[in-house]
Give the backbone structure.
Amino acid sequence: MRTLPFFAAPLLAAAVLLAGCSPTETAATETMLSERTDAMPAEANDTDVHFLGMMVPHHQQAIDMSDVLLASDVDDPALRDLAQRIRDGQQRENEQMNAWADEWGIDADMELHSRHIANGMVSPGVYESFTTLEGEALHTRFLELMHFHHQEVIAMTQDQVDNGGYAPLREMAAEMITVQTAEMAEMEKMYGGVPTP
């Protein structure tokens, strides 16, 4: 299982909470994705490889945040049910995406993307701060961070639906949009509006 490492770091200002890929990272990604492997399906393209590389660590962070909530003293049944569904669904999808990545022999691309903090992911410092929360503070922060985590990845997921070449991955991406859009609506109801990170 590929996981995004979280190293202790000072809590950064809100402006760096949700960082996208820099121009340098984007250029490096394009260079890496120009190399196909013999094991890749003929219909698979660069969009598919980029999506796998970016989505696996993105999912892993959602799984990790859900684990924090589920191991906590937060006893709201609706929130715990949501966190469990996020955890189980994204774990299942990660297992399939990692299986495809292994079959296609794209370990270098997966490793490249594993270090990115993008598409709504939180910085290591913000994540570490999140893990120290309890009770109502954790309840609220989970909704804030997870809603943004979902919201910011929709565009990349739609790009996979529109431009990916591998049909099973396009279908998975379409299902992700449906599920995560519904989950955001649940979060908004629990929060009493649209959460802000």
